[in-house]
Structure formats: structure tokens, C-alpha cells
Write a structure and sequence with these properties.
2 helices
């Protein structure tokens, strides 16, 4: 320790002690992290990622499913407008061309017919979306919603729409 003496206006001298650094080997904070500490941090990050990645993937699937349901409902509304005008459905119209990054393929059953009395519009999952537990989504002219996955998931797959 180094002793500093300061003389101020007071009659008694004031002293203060300051630590002296003699090198980083004696200071714990200068050494950095140990290998064990780094391994513990890596293990904690790995454990958190095992829960975070599947939750994120489920969120992404649900978001793309919502987009597919929006396309199905838009196509059904378009078909109803055609039916109100022509008294028939036209499965040649009402579906936009697919984007190159689409996760669903869309189509009508029966396909490409100008005057039909019933239709089903189907969204078939593609690529990474094929792991979606709901499977393909479909909507018919009566508004009946269905999925190709387990039927107990029907409400959850179409939830909020």
C-alpha cells in the first residue's frame, strides 16, 4: 500500500490508502474465464435452445398456416361472388399464382371447370411446412372446414378464423 498525505485547511493531516497493482497474476478479475465456466455457459445456452427452436418453428408454421387460411377464405369469397352473379361456381378463377417461397400449394376440386355446383378449395403444405401437424387444409362451398391431420386438431388448426 502507498500512503498519500494531503494537507488541507484542517490542522490534522488527512491520509488515504490506495491499492497498488503488482501484476495481473495476483488479481482474480484479471485472469478471465476458466474452461469450466465456459462449458457451463455453453451447456445452459444449449438447454435453452432445445426449448426455443421447436417453439419458434411451431410459431412459424402457425403463421404460414394463417396465411394459407386467408388465401382459402379469399378464394371462397370470390367463388361466392361468382355464384351470386352466375348461379354456378367457376374453379378456373379466384386463385393467385403461387409465389416461389410459398409453403402451401392451392387448388380447387374439381379443377378447371367453368360451371360447377360445388367446390372444395385445398391448401397442401409444401417443403418445411409439410411437418405441420394440421396437414392440408380445405374449405368447401358450404363453409365446412377440414384438415388431413388428426381431427381433434381441427378447431386448433382453424382457430380464430
Amino acid at each position: 500500500m502507498v500512503r498519500l498525505r494531503t494537507h488541507g485547511l484542517a490542522s490534522a493531516p488527512l491520509s488515504m490508502e490506495l491499492p497498488v497493482r503488482r501484476g495481473c497474476k495476483s488479481c482474480r478479475w484479471c485472469r478471465g474465464f476458466t474452461l469450466l465456466e465456459l462449458l457451463i455457459v455453453c451447456a445452459l445456452v444449449a438447454i435453452m435452445l432445445t426449448f426455443a427452436i421447436p417453439a419458434y418453428q411451431a410459431y412459424v408454421q402457425r403463421a404460414y398456416r394463417g396465411t394459407a387460411i386467408e388465401v382459402l377464405l379469399t378464394a371462397a369469397a370470390c367463388q361466392e361472388r361468382i355464384h351470386a352473379r352466375d348461379f354456378n361456381y367457376d374453379t378456373n378463377r379466384c386463385l393467385a399464382p403461387p409465389d416461389k417461397d410459398d409453403r402451401y400449394g392451392f387448388g380447387f376440386e374439381p379443377d378447371h371447370q367453368a360451371a360447377v355446383s360445388a367446390y372444395i378449395v385445398v391448401a397442401q403444405p409444401l417443403g418445411a411446412q409439410s411437418a405441420d401437424p394440421c396437414g392440408s387444409l380445405s374449405l368447401d362451398q358450404n363453409g365446412t372446414r377440414s384438415i388431413s391431420g388428426p381431427h381433434e386438431r381441427l378447431r386448433k388448426c382453424w382457430e380464430g378464423r
